[in-house]
Specification:
- The complex is a heterodimer of chains A (about 350) and B (about 300).
- With about 350 residues, chain A is an all-alpha fold.
- Chain A has a single domain, classed as ABC transporter involved in vitamin B12 uptake, BtuC (Orthogonal Bundle).
- Helix content of chain A is about 75%, strand content about 0%.
- Chain A has 13 helices and no strands.
- Chain B has about 300 residues and is mainly alpha-helical.
- Chain B has one domain: ABC transporter involved in vitamin B12 uptake, BtuC (Orthogonal Bundle), CATH 1.10.3470.
- Helix content of chain B is about 70%, strand content about 0%.
- The longest helix of chain B is centred in the first third of the chain and has 45 residues.
- Chains A and B meet through helix 5, helix 6, helix 11 and helix 13 of A and helix 3, helix 9 and helix 11 of B.
Chain lengths: ~350, ~300
């Protein structure tokens, strides 16, 4: 393959995968007795129909996916299979609420950074246990990060039912955080908050780090082949693995903090509809490229925002959106495989 | 004292009832992981099993429902295997997709068949079979030997799988595929076929676990009713150290933690029961960290295998 087609491959993969998804989804919708054209049109209108739909719904819903997607992309880039973004997000959300509620009189320029830093620290802390088990004992992180998700979920349940329960004592949720801790609006007149900009900035920073710095080079080298990186003798893989775990956990924790400070203003059970898992699809569709994660997070945010409209206007149950998400992932995997097969045939021939 | 006996007996009944679906799904997943495939899409097989069980029971009665549930779970696992084993895509990402898609599409099928009204669906349920004599043993008897057929299948699978995995040639080949696909392939073991079959077997038992939820446990179907059971089963396999006997004990332990929640809520609503629910996961992590002796996943777990 020439350099030019190689540079185009990720974009082609995404486009081919989206086309395949549309085709399969249309077939399934028709099979279910829904006119696919109407469903897609309603979904599109719900996500992009008006400026407010796009900014207040699509972009707001893309924000937690953007941050968790970046967390997953960074970890996977270093071949650290962090399936634990969901748990790290919960840890971050809890820490954010705890800190914000504990600082009732503090001004925004103090309490907002404190809240978000606490969220990032909690996410990193949550990721540190699987990191220690991987580097210290050689225990694979797929199962440990998955287990940590459940521990975080029950921990959140325990805290919102007990120690952090609202002072009214009516619902299983925390008190509302003080207004000074609310993230400011990014676009006046919409619900888009500062968290989206934070996500964009982290995406750019990660891209620069990965492509322009020696640290980023080491991380990619470990991701390409931990053994080779170790054998080359230039550096050790373990600190790189630790860094990938902690940074990934911190960004996922930040996602929880941003959601609490920007949207819900409190913590309750079921805060996340599984963003930490959808993030895997977001990162994969972006081929682990941080800048592309911005685009894919918006695509998944649009699916989520358009799902409601699809149900309202075309009568297609919102749960179809989850099915379409799965089709996107499977399509990317398949298209990816086909490229690889073509490339290896090309190089052999 | 009599009251305590009744309480502990009803607790055990609940623990076994809640442990059976976990045991079924985890016993299948043990075989799959022994062949080197971790199926995060197991949750998808469980929810398809619950829905397949419901639809099957309406058409064919409760036992036809159990069979339909197992089949539905097996089909979901076949989709996973087609990608993760045959196309050789990443197991974790593929499994995540299968879980997300299954939760979505079972909801879609359910809503198109029964509407989104939320009216509870009433299903014919699978009755409990009392085993003569054994069911009379105080406390333990009614808990273990007055259960539906799914429980007895789970008991039966323990020795059968133990024999298959550790006493037969095919079991040895399967474990070889899980430890080192390269070596197994060199020895003439068909890696892809072995892994496909192992994954589909896990799908069948996970589907049966799902059918247990709809046809034994609740007598209805609700969206997302699998409630993480497939994920929990993966933790159960870890705590049970990839060994049928250990796995069934771990499933009972997880079932017990869940049953304790209900028992404690009845006694004192203020007890922090989420902590009890978290306990099995913490213990699974401790088991992985080697607190209870050496525990090791199959060497080739989640490893890709290029089709030769």
């Amino acid at each position: 393959m020439s350099t030019r087609t190689r540079a185009l491959t990720p974009a082609l993969t995404a486009a081919a995968a989206l086309l395949a998804t549309l085709a399969v989804a249309a077939a399934l919708l028709a099979l279910g007795g829904y006119p696919p054209g109407d469903a897609f049109a309603a979904l599109f209108r719900g996500a992009f129909g008006t400026w407010d739909r796009f900014v207040s719904f699509t972009l707001v819903r893309a924000t937690p996916l953007l941050l968790t997607g970046l967390a997953v992309a960074l970890a996977f880039k270093a071949r650290v299979w962090n399936i634990g973004a969901e748990g790290q997000l919960h840890a971050g959300a809890l820490a954010a609420v705890a800190v914000a509620v504990a600082l009732p009189g503090a001004p925004g320029f103090l309490v907002i950074p404190a809240t978000l830093l606490a969220a990032a620290a909690a996410g990193a802390l949550w990721a540190s246990a699987p990191a220690a088990m991987k580097t210290g004992m050689g225990v694979g992180e797929v199962i440990t990060t998955l287990l940590m998700n459940f521990v975080a979920l029950f921990m959140a349940q325990f805290l919102v039912q007990g120690p952090l329960r609202e002072s009214r004592g009516v619902f299983n949720q925390t008190d509302e955080i003080p207004p000074a801790a609310h993230l400011p609006d990014l676009v006046p007149g919409t619900r888009l908050h500062l968290g989206f900009l934070i996500g964009i900035l982290i995406a750019i920073a990660l891209w620069l780090y990965l492509t322009r710095t020696p640290g980023g080079f080491r991380l990619r080298a470990v991701g390409a082949s931990p053994q080779a990186a170790e054998v080359s003798g230039r550096f050790r893989a373990q600190p790189v693995v630790w860094l990938a775990f902690l940074a990934s956990g911190a960004i996922a924790g930040l996602a929880g903090g941003v959601q609490v400070a920007g949207v819900t203003h409190r913590m309750y059970e079921g805060l996340s509809p599984g963003w930490g898992y959808t993030a895997i699809a977001v990162a994969l569709l972006a081929r682990l490229n941080p800048l592309a994660v911005v685009v894919t997070a918006i695509v998944f945010g649009a699916l989520s925002a358009g799902g409601g409209a699809m149900q309202r206007d075309a009568g297609v149950p919102e749960v179809w959106v989850r099915g379409i998400e799965a089709l996107v992932i499977l399509a990317v995997l398949t298209v990816d495989r086909s490229w690889q097969a073509l490339a290896s045939r090309g190089s052999r021939g | 004292m009599a009251e305590f006996g009744a309480l502990s007996s009803s607790f055990l009944v609940a623990a076994v009832g809640l442990g059976v679906p976990l045991a079924l799904a985890a016993l299948g997943e043990t075989v799959s992981e022994r062949a080197g495939v971790i199926n995060i899409g197991l949750e998808g097989s469980v929810i398809w099993g619950a829905l397949g069980g419901a639809l099957g029971a309406l058409a064919l009665g409760p036992y036809g429902g159990l069979a339909a549930g197992a089949l539905a779970g097996g089909l979901a696992a076949l989709v996973f295997a087609a990608f993760a084993v045959w196309l050789n895509t990443d197991q974790i990402i593929t499994g995540t997709a299968v879980t997300i898609g299954s939760l979505g599409f079972t909801g879609a099928v359910f809503q198109s068949r029964f509407g989104a009204t939320g009216l509870a669906l009433e299903l014919p349920t699978v009755p409990a079979w009392e085993v003569p004599v054994l069911a009379r043993i105080p406390v333990v008897g009614p808990a273990f030997f007055d259960q539906a057929v799914t429980a007895y299948l789970a008991y039966l699978l323990v020795p059968v799988l133990g024999w298959f995995l550790f006493r037969t040639r095919r079991g040895l080949s399967l474990r070889a595929v899980g430890e080192s696909p390269e070596a197994a392939n060199a020895a003439g073991v068909p890696v892809v076929r072995t892994r496909m079959l192992a994954v589909v077997f896990a799908g069948l038992t996970a589907g049966l676990a799902g059918a247990h939820l709809s046809l034994v446990h609740t007598g209805t179907f609700a969206e997302n009713m699998s409630a993480g059971k497939g994920f929990i089963a993966i933790a159960v396999v870890v705590l049970g150290r990839w060994n049928p006997k250990g796995v069934v004990a771990a499933a009972l332990f997880f079932g017990g933690a869940e049953a304790l929640q209900f028992a404690l809520q009845a006694v004192d609503a203020d007890l922090p029961y989420p902590l009890f629910l978290a306990l099995p996961y913490v213990l699974s992590l401790a088991a992985l960290a080697g607190w209870f002796g050496r525990s090791r996943a199959p060497e080739g777990l989640a490893s890709a295998w290029p089709r030769g």
